[in-house]
Design goal:
The chain is mostly helical and 169 residues long. The protein has helices at residues 11-21, 24-43, 55-68, 79-96, 108-123, 137-145, 154-168. It folds into 2 domains: 12-123; 137-168, no CATH class. The longest helix is centred in the N-terminal third of the chain and has 20 residues, at 24-43. It is flat and about 65 Å long. The chain starts with 10 loop residues before the first helix and ends with a helix.
Length: 169
């Protein structure tokens, strides 16, 4: 019995395969961004199907959204969260509408507004990234002298190599 040379997939199957290419965390971030923008639109009394908006109107909506968006508790987001929301909305619109809100010239106003919002957040102290303090020399020496970092055992050697990679690369 001969099999067909070409497979026959439905549009739904193709979309499912595309979804599997992106990580679950990326899909979740996109969903959160879309939900946040839809909540903003509903709260301001606007139509929530923003993917149907003409580019000029979407530009205006996004310009206001970037400046107006807040936590559910009313506080400002950190700058990294605002960036995540922007990229999530961008992914959604690229998929649904084939529109690039990051590079398309018709979204210049929204992008200027995003830059302004980022500057304001940094001035409020919401732009810093908190880093862990460095490991001091004495503690580092204790780690390397411990049996869990002994190069005499395979497990100890793996621990030492992993620590060296994380510390020095």
């Amino acid at each position: 019995m001969a099999t067909k040379r070409f497979a026959s997939h439905t549009g739904e199957e193709i979309e499912t395969k595309k979804k599997l290419l992106t990580s679950a965390n990326t899909n979740k971030a996109t969903d959160v961004a879309v939900k946040t923008l839809r909540s903003y639109l509903a709260e301001t009394g606007q139509e929530v199907s923003f993917e149907m908006f003409p580019d000029e109107h979407l530009n205006q909506v996004l310009a206001h959204f970037y400046i107006d968006v807040r936590h559910e508790t009313g506080g400002h987001y950190k700058s990294t969260t605002l960036s995540s929301l922007r990229y999530g909305i961008s992914r959604f619109l690229k998929e649904k509408k084939n529109t690039d809100i990051l590079r398309d010239s018709s979204f210049k106003g929204a992008n200027v507004s995003f830059g302004t919002a980022m500057q304001e957040l940094k001035q409020m102290g919401k732009g810093e990234i908190t880093h862990y303090p460095e490991i001091n020399g004495d503690d580092l020496q204790k780690l390397y002298n411990h049996m869990l970092f002994s190069s005499d055992t395979p497990h100890g050697l793996a621990n030492k190599v992993q620590m060296d990679i994380r510390l020095y690369l």
